[in-house]
Amino acid sequence: MTANTAHAPAIDTLTVGEVVAGGSFPLTRDSLVRYAGASGDFNPIHYRDDIAVSVGLPGVLAHGMLTMGLAVQPVVDWAGDPARVVDYQVRFTRPVPVDAEDGALVTVVAKVGAIDTDAGVARIDLTVTFEEQTVLGKAQARVRLT
Amino acid sequence: MNPDIQGRVFPPTPPYLVGREKVREFARAVFATSDINYDPDAARAAGHADIVAPPTFAVVVQEATLAQLLAEPDAGIDFTRVVHGDQRFSYTRPIVAGDELTATLTVASVKSLGGHSMVTAESSIVDAHGAHVVTATSTLVVRGDE
Fold first, then answer.
1. What CATH topology corresponds to B3-18+55-142?
2. A interface toward B at CB cutoff 8 Å?
3. Pick from A146, A100, A101, A142: which is nearest to A122 by CA?
4. What is the Cα–Cα distance from B1 to B70, expressed in whole angstroms?
């Protein structure tokens, strides 16, 4: 039907446990300001250290929804079309502090978690880490493939 | 917080018109690289009416419903104690530029756990024809007194 279909992986070629995608995302304070404007989430803990510290945080944190949003991008590129991601869920288990000078590097590894050939849907499980600690739990994207 | 709000359905939000530049702005903010997020020709070649929003874009539309919940006088939610616990998006079809979307929040559950409360809010997002596009589900943790 479309040029794009040719790029999508065939579901019957996948193996549970196989790493299919991944990437590293260097976050800076600029990234947080950009996400604040794009999303409309202007909670000052994402851009003001003084306010973050006053509520007991180590400093400015990345928006959880920014981490969620970028973590699925390697899966989108692998699938070939953002529309193939039909379901996506995460649990926010650990915050990502973003240093004013050094930023924060978030790393994503995407593995095949389950394959439903009849439904044409693969569950891709994401491991998302910052400083070698997992920051998202139960991060799963369901991807429609053919 | 007030457990009696379980099951409450809020009024639909005013229609949100998905703009092409907003989708692009959001896509850049979450490090999206797929042409289908930016280029109408690439999107049409893949069978879409216009550029496709990233999987987490629905949060922009959902946000107005969460504001309704937090502002509900008898809900008893102190927003300064709210932490985002879980997030999920379940799509019937992708969001594309030009969509006019309306969201309706239902309080799916209210639970107490060791002094904290957990509220799960399901926002059903439909298009101008009333057809389901995506359900955005958030679990918010309201911290108790420490």
1. Thiol Ester Dehydrase; Chain A (3.10.129)
2. 1-4, 25, 31, 34-35, 37-41, 55, 64-66, 68-70, 72-73, 76-77, 80-83, 85-92, 138, 141
3. A142
4. 11
> Domain map of chain B by residue range?
3-18+55-142
Token duo for residue B12:
């639909």
Query: For residue range B84-108, what is the model confidence (pLDDT) as tens digits?
Result: 999 999 999 999 999 999 999 999 9
Do residue B89 and residue A88 have CB atoms under 8 angstroms apart?
Answer: yes
A83–B33 CB contact, under 8 Å: no
Distance CA A106, CA A62 (A): 10
> In the numeric block, which tokens belong to residue A26?
């260097």
pLDDT in tens, A18-52: 999 999 999 999 999 999 999 999 999 999 999 99
Q: What is the ipTM of this complex?
A: 0.96
Residue A113 lies in a domain: yes
Structural domain for A127, as ranges? 11-27+62-144
